[in-house]
Amino acid sequence: MKKLYAFILSFLVLFLTACSEPTNHSRAVYMLLDTSGTYTKQLEKAQGIVRYLLGVLNSGDSLALARVDSASFSEKDIVAKVTFDLRPSQANAQKRAFMEVMDKFAAEVKGSSYTDITGGMLQAIEYLNETGAGEKHILIFSDLKEEIKKGHIRDFPIPFDGVKVVALNVTKLHSDNVDPREYMERVDNWSKRVEDGGGSWRVINDLERLSGLLE
Amino acid sequence: MVSNIWNFWTPDQPVLSAIIWVVLIIAVMYMARTPAHQAIFTITHSFRNALRLMGRSIMLAEAKLGRRNSEVLLAHGREATERYIEREFQRVEELVSRDLSGYPSLQRDLKEQITRIDEDYVQSGEVPPQPPEWLKAIQAVAEIPSTGSPVVAKILSDIHGTLKKSMDKNVNEYRNANKERHNLLKRMMPYWRSLTKILTSVEKKITGLETRSNIIDEQMDRYEKIMEKTDYAERMLSSSSLTQFFISGFVLFIATIGGYVNFQLVALPMSEMVGAGSYLGSVRSSDVAALFIIAIEVTLGLFLMESIGVTRLFPVISTLDDRKRKIIIWVTFSFLFVFASIESSLAYMRDMLASDREALTQILSGVEVVEPAFRWIPSVGQMVMGFILPFALTFVAIPLESFIHSSRTVFGLVLIWLLHMLSFVIRLAGNLINGLGRFLVSVYDLVIFFPLRIEQLIKSKKTEGGHGTDKSMEPSHAVTE
Fold first, then answer.
1. What span, in angstroms and rounded, lies between the C-alpha atoms of B227 and B15?
2. Which of B89, B146, B248, B346 is the most exposed, fewest CB within 10 Å of its CB?
3. B22-42: per-residue pLDDT in tens?
């Protein structure tokens, strides 16, 4: 019934909006995967998220998968990236290829010594801005514990203008169990950093509830 | 602030001050009674008159709209009846040219049949056998007195033999003649049957013509009533129009659902052609393209129906000569056929895309991809549906025409009803305002009832002292409406 209304209304909408400013409906998603230490064991969950994203993204949307390692502000850390073809048949083929790359990466990934989340975020923003998409999402699959290599400077504001950041599967570390304030402080710090930069921040730990992931 | 005003006269005694105020107000109101009444009546009368004027204007508009609606209704009814009568005359003409044009040959056939029957009948007539001429001579010989002569006996015996032979021969001849007659009568049977058949056929044709003439009579009667602009004709047409409006609306609703199904068949594969990521406003370009195709198909259907003469939405087409109309028919039909073929292929493409998507979804959810059995059945079904629906949508023209024609009358009736209600509400408001004015005057008098009563008493005493009892309760300077 909803579709029937849409069918009838689309006639009206067509005439009403034909002369209006063009709206950018495309979406771009940049997914950061933490590959530090024991977090590589969580990659199966990340594979599930990527599969979900491949299911919901449409023609014209972009998707990139990158890892967070010791120095993540680099194109080399992008595992796979794609802008889906405008033809649905081609887009489906691209999705299959992307999934194969993801599976291969999950099978061969090695843990990194440091966790440069800020660098990964900067790289993500750069990629998202290049796509020119109407909606920009960064999904970070990490425990949010940043460990920067000595000499790397990362304590500066990041411009998150219009970017929606979602932290996924933010696991509690052993030390968090000793002092939960550490966990809350970690999450709050990132939340503040993103919102100060003009973005929005959300945390989804229950991966069974992914339906609102790209809202 | 208000309490300060109330305490104006005696600040220490608010009750006394309030009493002084009340007395003063009543005194002022008593003195200003006439102009106050006049002011109230002037305001309320002005409003009432304005509303009455407005109500009258609306009633005039309603009446005008009613007349216009009636004219439209009658004109449409007249046109419809003319078309009906025209069609009946065409049928009669067809009947006459098809059946009665062969009437001379039919008559000839009939004559031939009758002639043959007549001839056979004449031939089958029974002719009584003539007695032989020599019977009298034999009778004379037979009357010769027998004298016991053997010669005479022999002669008589011979005569008897001869007679017997002659009789036998006659009987045989008679039997043969009868046989021949029966054969002739038997031969008449097919002629009779043929004759009966021809006459039955003539009867049927004549009956068909009679039925048509009865229908024409009925329609002519209806047409005359419409031309006379009788109330009965108007009521009849109005009722018919309402029925048409609801029936055609219902059919159009079904057609819209058909259009939606058609849209679903075309929209997804169109994204393969125009791209799924492009938008026109907030609507996908592929959806717009699909809608465009459906709209074109419906338009072609309208032109086709118009050219065939089923509908009369475009006078330009209906007034074209037959040759041009035939060209339009073939052109629109060809385009429709091409569009139906395109849609059929798009429906097949949709099925392919849907199955590809389904397979991808299965892979993404980690399920092994299984090709369902009899996968070809929905594919063929969708292709057939894609081919048929454009032609089915062609028939939308018929309910659309009825809907457009009947909606003029129905919307006219609704508008008349709304104007009538508006007029009623305005007149009611005018009367209520008038009543409010009277009510305010009564309330005014109620407030100053005390001085009024005193005035009344003084007046009645004066009247008693002078001209007798005056039972008028109305004060001297009361304002009448």
1. 82
2. B146
3. 889 999 999 999 999 999 999
